[in-house]
UniProtKB/TrEMBL annotation:
Residue ranges of every copy of the Cyclic nucleotide-binding domain listed in the record: 62-110
Molecular function as annotated in GO: intracellularly cyclic nucleotide-activated monoatomic cation channel activity; protein-containing complex binding
Keyword Ion transport: yes
Signal peptide from the UniProt entry: none
GO CC, alphabetical: membrane
Record localization: Membrane
Protein's recorded name: Cyclic nucleotide-gated channel rod photoreceptor subunit alpha-like
Amino acid sequence: MRHHKVPRAMQRRVQRWYDYSWSRGRIQGGGDINTALGLLPDKLRTELALHVNLLTLKKVSIFKECQPEFLHDLVLKMKAYIFTPGDLICRKGEVAREMFIIADGILEVI
């Protein structure tokens, strides 16, 4: 959350929720970031997702003129992925079933 410059108060709210849920046996460790975020209460997950992803989405030219409500809905559908050098994301000419927005790094079409 620090990497995404999430406000300290929001970081504390997320940490308190996880600590409380963990202590009550409602959640267990492990899993990926998308699973962990999916466990948050809707309101907190929405606030966190908007803070982390909305600015990135607004930088994409096809979304610049979109209504804020549409962008909010889209942000809530986004998932985080981390790829390493050499990972194949998709093949040229392949039918697209999802859209990737590269927040950091370089992609090469081969």
